[in-house]
């Protein structure tokens, strides 16, 4: 039957094509002149001349042709074709030579392959008519189109799947869930091949679908997520508007039922039991309970609360946001001896309540929690818990400060012993009686040194020292008046010489290390030794300060530049204590405005009105003075060095160069013996010895005897060497003080040659033996230069021998 319908449609199509092509041919002929047609056509007769062109018999080809023979498409024909085969017809373009073949003689076109409109809807080709002998174009090349005619060969398809939708539980009937759409590849402009309708194949008990739009809606109002949380619905799409013979496709739609808060929380048990030791600190978790809720997500969020007074006072309940459990913790210390069991009521309720479902019932539930307190051995407890004691700072050592009391809270009521944590009282200022808990002073107290003491008292069971309690105790030292008041600072004041009577000089304030409860009150007066003072007066201002004023007209700092004014300060006690301080008052010179310029001992101030020029001049003067002082010091040092050199020149030359060989007996200028001779009067020595030489009357006329007297000098018991000693000491001091010259210990260096010298000294100063004990014969071996010296001593030696004989 399908084939019959197909043939019928093709016949009608050919007819329509013939009418369409006839109209197109008439238009084409009128527009282009030489046109398409055959002899005898009405158009040719009307025009009065023969026109050349193409004649088309077919423009369409049906898709999905399944016949065994090539499918006839159409025919091209030229009006110049006389049927003798002299014209050759050819085609080119899409599918030419492969899909479409043409008979070169007749111009018939056939389709050799199965076509699919869904892949390609039309083909564009070009037709040519050529002379078979010359291969020249007899007609201009013309373009034509072969359209593929659609048949219903494509089923509807759901291209956007898989589909997942959602709908809230308990939604009313007709609530839109989602929309599905199917597409058909057939030609929507030809027939009903692409007209799609929708229907539900599975799940029609709970959902429906709009046949035209594909919108899925709820079919019932009692969808319950807790019963079934998802549905699989099969939707079918059929083309040909659902008529018989139409093609169809289907898809599965997953519909998730979302939750609403339609279920209240419920405790699985009506009673829970927990236990905890009585020493558990505040905040310790006792246990957890949880109310079940069939809902999901935020609809299961709950809060918990205590519903009885005892529970609110002793325990605290919080919600664990992760597990939605109620956490019960200790809020107040437990005591087994006071109460062994606590019974509380815990209530659970939803955070978010949907007002649409309030009529379903209360969204809360309650349960009973029983907490058993377990007994443990507890340390002693301090009673009462007061942590403040007071004691006077003048309390004697051993005085009782206070008593602490601790009791064993257990039923056994063990005796308690007390101690002080010495880490908090390292100086052992306090002691405690181990049995009574009485705290006594262990040292003398001083509030000014430490006004507060913080100690820790330990209380422990007598037979179990591991059970220890600690209590912090604050001891305040009460003040007694044991410190006299003192002046706040060592006051110094300045007053102008031209001061007038009643002028304020200084305001006096005092300090007192004591802290009386009623506050300080000080009294100021002059001590008895200062009552006759006529220069200054003291006024007590009554606010713990006093003012010192002048009492006379003008002062003279030439007569007295400093006044010491004693001030007596007394506190209010008890007992009243006093001290005397001194105010130092300096008399100073002032300018016309009363500004202090200078005092005798200290310049207190300088005028602030000096100009820059005056300051520069002052600095220049200071620099000049400094230069002058340096110059004077330099000249003085130079002069001193010169004098020292002149004083030491003679003696230093004689002593330092005493070991020089000299120029012989003809050299009379090598030594100046006058300086050495002047140090001691050799005439006295000669006179004492009875020998010749320098006598009291003057020089002797015998030069030889004068020369012989020098080496024969003999030490006398009555000789006084203080002259030499003083002279040498004076020179040493001058050398030590003068830093510009090297030290010249001339006499010490050259007066002694040393004991190891092979040649004995010739110095008469160091000759301690008598002249008779010396032998100068060795001088003869010293050479010609010492010949005269040897003869001198040898002659003197002969005279001495003759005198002895």
Q: Could you please describe the fold and organization of this structure?
A:
With 805 residues, the chain is α+β, with helices and mostly antiparallel strands. Helices cover 18% and strands 30% of the residues. It is built from ten helices and 40 strands. Strand 38 (562-570) and strand 39 (578-590) form a beta hairpin. The longest helix has 45 residues, at 612-656. The termini are far apart.
Topology:
Elements: H1 2-32, H2 42-47, E1 54-56, E2 60-62, E3 71-78, E4 87-93, E5 100-102, E6 108-111, E7 122-131, E8 142-149, E9 163-168, E10 176-179, E11 197-202, E12 207-209, E13 215-218, E14 230-238, E15 248-258, E16 271-277, E17 285-289, E18 302-306, H3 309-314, E19 315-320, E20 325-330, E21 341-350, E22 364-374, E23 381-382, E24 388-392, E25 400-403, E26 406-407, E27 416-420, E28 430-432, E29 438-441, E30 452-461, E31 464-478, E32 486-487, E33 492-496, E34 504-511, E35 523-525, E36 536-540, E37 545-550, E38 562-570, E39 578-590, E40 596-599, H4 612-656, H5 673-677, H6 682-689, H7 703-709, H8 722-737, H9 746-750, H10 787-804
Parallel strand pairs: 2-8, 9-15, 16-22, 24-31, 33-39
Antiparallel strand pairs: 1-3, 3-6, 4-7, 5-6, 7-8, 10-13, 11-14, 12-13, 14-15, 17-20, 18-21, 19-20, 21-22, 23-26, 25-29, 27-30, 28-29, 30-31, 32-34, 34-37, 35-38, 36-37, 38-39, 39-40
Helix pairs in contact: 7-10
């Amino acid at each position: 039957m399908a084939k019959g319908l197909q043939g019928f449609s093709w016949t009608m199509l050919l007819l329509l094509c013939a009418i369409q092509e006839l109209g197109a041919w008439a238009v084409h002929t009128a527009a282009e002149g030489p046109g398409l047609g055959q002899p005898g056509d009405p158009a040719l007769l009307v025009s009065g001349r023969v026109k050349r062109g193409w004649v088309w018999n077919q423009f369409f080809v049906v898709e999905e042709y399944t016949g065994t023979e090539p499918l006839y498409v159409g025919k091209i024909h030229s009006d110049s074709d006389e049927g003798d085969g002299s014209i050759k017809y050819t085609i080119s373009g899409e599918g030419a030579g492969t899909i479409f073949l043409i008979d070169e003689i007749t111009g018939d076109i056939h389709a050799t392959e199965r076509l699919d409109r869904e892949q390609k809807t039309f083909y564009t080709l070009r037709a040519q008519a050529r002379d078979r002998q010359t291969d020249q174009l007899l007609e201009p090349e013309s373009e034509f189109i072969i359209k593929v005619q659609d048949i219903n060969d494509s089923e509807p398809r759901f291209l956007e799947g898989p589909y997942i939708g959602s709908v809230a539980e308990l939604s009313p009937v007709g609530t839109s869930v989602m929309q599905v759409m199917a597409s058909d590849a057939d030609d929507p402009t030809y027939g009903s091949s692409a007209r799609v309708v929708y229907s539900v194949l599975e799940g029609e008990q709970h959902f429906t679908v709009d046949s035209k739009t594909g919108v899925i809606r709820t079919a019932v109002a009692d969808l319950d997520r807790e019963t079934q949380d998802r549905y699989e619905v099969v939707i079918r799409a059929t083309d040909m508007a659902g008529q018989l013979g139409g093609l169809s496709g289907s898809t599965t739609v997953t519909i998730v039922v979302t939750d609403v808060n339609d279920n209240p929380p419920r405790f699985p048990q009506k009673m829970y039991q927990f236990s905890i030791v009585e020493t558990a600190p505040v905040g310790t978790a006792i246990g957890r309970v949880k109310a079940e809720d069939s809902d999901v997500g935020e609809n299961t969020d709950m809060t918990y609360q205590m519903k009885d007074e005892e529970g609110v006072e002793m325990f605290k309940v919080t919600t664990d946001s992760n597990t939605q459990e109620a956490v019960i913790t200790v809020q107040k210390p437990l005591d087994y001896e006071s109460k062994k069991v606590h019974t509380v009521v815990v209530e659970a309720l939803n955070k978010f309540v949907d007002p649409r479902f309030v009529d379903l019932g209360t969204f809360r539930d309650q349960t009973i929690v029983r907490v058993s307190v377990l007994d443990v051995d507890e340390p002693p407890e301090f009673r009462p818990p007061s942590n403040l004691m007071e004691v006077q700072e003048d309390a004697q050592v051993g005085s009782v400060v206070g008593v602490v009391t601790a009791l064993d809270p257990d039923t056994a009521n063990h005796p308690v012993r007390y101690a002080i944590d010495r880490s908090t009282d390292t100086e052992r200022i306090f002691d405690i009686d181990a049995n009574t808990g009485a705290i006594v002073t262990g040292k003398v107290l001083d509030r000014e040194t430490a006004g507060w003491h913080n100690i820790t008292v330990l209380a422990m069971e007598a037979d179990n020292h591991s059970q220890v309690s600690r209590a912090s105790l604050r001891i305040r030292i009460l003040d007694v008046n044991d410190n006299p008041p003192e002046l706040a600072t060592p006051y110094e004041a300045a007053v102008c010489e031209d001061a007038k009577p009643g002028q304020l000089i200084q305001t006096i304030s005092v300090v007192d290390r004591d802290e009386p409860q009623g506050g300080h009150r000080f009294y100021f007066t002059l001590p008895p030794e200062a009552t006759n003072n006529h220069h200054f007066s003291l006024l007590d201002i009554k606010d713990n300060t006093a003012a010192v004023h002048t009492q006379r007209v003008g002062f003279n700092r030439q007569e007295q530049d400093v006044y010491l004014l004693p001030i007596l300060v007394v506190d209010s006690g008890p007992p009243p204590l006093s001290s005397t301080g001194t105010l130092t008052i300096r008399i100073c010179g002032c300018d016309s405005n009363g500004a202090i310029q200078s005092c005798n001992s200290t310049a207190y101030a300088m005028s602030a009105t000096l100009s820059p020029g005056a300051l520069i001049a002052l600095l220049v003067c200071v620099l000049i003075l400094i230069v002058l002082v340096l110059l004077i010091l330099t000249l003085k040092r130079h002069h001193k060095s010169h004098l020292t050199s002149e004083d030491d020149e003679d003696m230093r030359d004689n002593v330092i160069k005493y070991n020089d060989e000299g120029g012989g007996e003809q050299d009379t200028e090598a030594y100046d013996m006058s300086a050495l001779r002047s140090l001691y009067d050799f005439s006295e020595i000669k006179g004492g010895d009875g020998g010749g030489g320098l006598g009291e009357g003057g020089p002797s006329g015998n030069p030889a005897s004068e020369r012989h007297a020098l080496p024969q000098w003999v030490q006398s018991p009555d000789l006084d060497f203080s002259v030499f000693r003083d002279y040498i000491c004076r020179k040493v001091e001058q050398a030590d003080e003068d830093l510009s010259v090297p030290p010249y210990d001339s006499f010490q260096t050259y007066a002694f040659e040393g004991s190891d010298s092979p040649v004995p000294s010739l110095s008469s100063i160091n000759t301690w033996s008598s002249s008779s004990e010396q032998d100068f014969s060795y001088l003869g071996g010293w050479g010609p230069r010492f010949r005269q010296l040897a003869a001198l001593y040898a002659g003197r030696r002969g005279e001495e021998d003759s005198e002895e004989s």
